[in-house]
Design goal:
two-stranded antiparallel sheet; Butyryl-CoA Dehydrogenase, subunit A, domain 3; alpha+beta; 10 strands; Butyryl-CoA Dehydrogenase, subunit A, domain 2; single chain; Butyryl-Coa Dehydrogenase, subunit A, domain 1; 19 helices; 4 domains
Length: 594
């Protein structure tokens, strides 16, 4: 597959805070190759023709059917995109994998089963397996002859994965590791054949194992009764002196954390793209209903407050899509500079964008939560009924803020990674904070040099980056090596970073669209970007006040707040009119159309 990334500038993970990026730097959905589009079309058609017609059966926990659908997807090559050709896969890029995941997210339960198999159930072997392990397992995972699962969580170690209690002890003959413990909330557990299991060798060396369902001592508990995703299998996996051959150690003894945490970066990206697909799909469902539902003699789509909801769903869908494709584009550009046949190099390239991966997980899952809630509201009383699709979507969406690392943990990762990399000299945050102090003490603001379609928004973006630099720099200076204990401050800083990344991603993509199509053809995208930027400035100001008030008081706080007011000067745009215009366009099209 030809790569768009050849010759592109490699952008460092987290650099969006400290550098100015230009439209040519970002990858957008408009840059997808014909090959990518073909993969997306294949995945979309498979979902429409094979999965959605069997929705009721999937939700009724017909796991024999789920396995059959996975096998059919395997025949089309949709399970093997990330697997090297040498082991029966397609060996395609991450973009192809995410395009496929987006187009196969129409049935949430099946999407969960698919993701657990292709991502966290398969990729640990792709990236960390030895030659024999890859030859043994990957060709069969590529066809769904074997179904994979990922077993990390325990009852007492969810977010704190390294607190796992499952133990592994080498047998007297040295041929097996004896695993004892229980893994909880394991997706696909009811029918999976292969589990990536984490245990502590001799009680302290965190290690990954490839565990087959048929190994002695391995058993699966009954299905959990969940709020949503009823068609996705979730069970506990019991390990009662389970005998695992020594050749099934995955990676190195004591290095299991490298597998656990790095694979989750890809999982977070795929969860983000599935969430974005859900937002766009629900926006279309809400638009269709609002067009046909009459109250007071007119369609409810004509009501201002309904227009607000429909438009906001679309705006968030558009901005999140800008963020997602930008992130994957940066990863692909970095991957173009390494030996793609070396999985360790590939994983290291992905790991360097852990900040952006966590941003996508948090933002994607939270806008999905917003959209499902507002879709129920658009449906009114009908939305609370199981006879309408948004009721189930509401329940299915809730887990997205919990798995692949809770949003609280991911918020700590976002700010924590910025500070950690800066302390290592990999990012220039501290020098930027030092340089900013002079500007903050200056009686006048720098001259506004922004121009173009988004002159005001670009100036606001530059100022919001300064706010983030000031907040993180102050936190590092005040708390030093104890900064990780200030979770509320770090979360506020992360919320600022998420808004900045969204604002900049939307500006860059829309500027790129305007350059190729002209302003008239990009009216909705321009309006969506302006509304998001307008709201983002307000959100950033509120989060900054929270962080500053936690770190300072008295005259120091008053000085910081005065500076904040200077950096958040922004003439509000008429978001009511802009949202109405977007909503009218949605209603006319009858679907999400940004």
């Amino acid at each position: 597959m030809t790569s768009y990334a050849e010759g592109k500038r490699v952008l460092q993970g987290g650099s969006f805070l400290l550098e100015d990026h230009v439209p040519e730097d970002v990858f957008t959905p408009e840059d997808l190759t014909d090959e990518h589009k073909m993969i997306g079309q294949t995945a979309h058609e498979f979902t429409e023709k094979e999965i959605l017609p069997l929705d009721a059966e999937i939700e009724a926990k017909d796991y024999k059917l789920t396995r059959e659908l996975l096998r059919k997807a395997g025949e089309l090559g949709l399970l093997s995109i990330d697997i090297p050709e040498k082991y029966g896969g397609a060996g395609l890029d991450l973009l192809a994998s995410l395009v496929s995941a987006e187009n196969m997210s129409g049935q949430a339960s099946f999407s969960g089963s698919l993701g657990a198999h292709t991502t966290i159930g398969t990729l640990p072997i792709v990236y960390f397996g030895n030659e024999e392990q890859k030859k043994k397992y990957l060709p069969r995972l590529a066809t769904a002859e074997l179904v994979g699962a990922y077993a990390l969580t325990e009852s007492g170690s969810g977010s704190d994965a390294l607190a796992a209690k499952t133990k592994a002890v080498l047998s007297e003959d040295g041929k097996h590791y004896i695993l004892t413990g229980q893994k909880m909330w394991i997706t696909n557990a009811g029918f999976a054949d292969v589990f990536i299991v984490f245990a502590k060798v001799d009680g302290d060396k965190f290690t990954a194992f490839i565990v087959e369902r048929t190994f002695p001592g391995v058993s699966v508990a009954p299905e959990e009764h969940k709020m949503g995703l009823h068609g996705s299998s979730t069970c506990a996996v019991n390990l009662e002196e389970a005998r695992i051959p020594v050749e099934n150690v995955l990676g190195e003894i004591g290095k299991g954390h490298q597998i656990a945490f790095n694979i989750l970066n890809i999982g977070r990206l795929k969860l983000g793209v599935s969430s974005i697909a859900g937002v766009k799909r629900l926006n279309t469902i809400a638009v269709e209903y609002a067009r046909q539902r009459n109250q007071f003699g007119v369609p409810i789509s004509s009501f201002g407050l309904i227009k607000h909801k429909l438009a906001q769903m679309a705006i968030l869908g558009y901005v999140s899509e800008c963020m997602m494709y930008r992130t994957v584009g940066m990863i692909e550009t970095a991957m173009a500079t390494i030996d793609r046949d070396d999985p360790r190099q590939a994983l290291k390239a992905i790991e360097s964008y852990a900040i952006e991966c966590s941003i996508m997980k948090v933002f994607g899952s939270e806008i999905l939560a917003y959209t499902t809630d507002e879709a129920v509201q658009v449906f009114g009383g009908n939305g609370y009924s199981k006879d309408y699709p948004v009721e189930r979507a509401y329940r299915d969406a809730r887990i997205a803020r919990i798995y692949e690392g809770t949003n609280e943990i991911n918020r700590l990762i976002i700010s924590g990674q910025i500070l950690r990399r800066s302390s290592k000299g990999e990012l220039g945050l501290f020098q930027a904070a030092k340089n900013l102090m002079g500007e903050m003490l200056s009686p006048s603001m720098p001259e506004d040099l922004s121009d173009g379609v988004f002159a005001q928004e670009r100036q606001a973006l530059a100022n919001c980056k300064k706010i983030a630099i000031a907040a993180l720099g102050s936190a590092a200076q005040k708390y030093r090596d104890k900064v990780q204990d200030q979770q509320e401050v770090l979360a506020a800083a992360s919320n600022i970073l998420i808004s900045i990344y969204g604002m900049e991603s939307a500006i860059l993509r829309t500027e790129k669209l305007v350059a190729s199509r002209g302003e008239a053809a990009c009216r909705n995208q321009i309006d969506a970007t302006r509304v998001f930027a307008n709201d983002a400035v307000q959100h950033i100001e509120a989060e900054a006040k929270t962080a500053l008030a936690a770190m300072s008081e008295g005259d120091e706080l008053r000085m910081m707040l005065a500076t904040l007011r200077r950096f958040t000067k922004f003439i509000p745009v008429n978001t009511v009119a802009l949202r109405r215009q977007i909503a009218d366009s949605l209603v006319e099209a009858g679907r999400y159309n940004l």
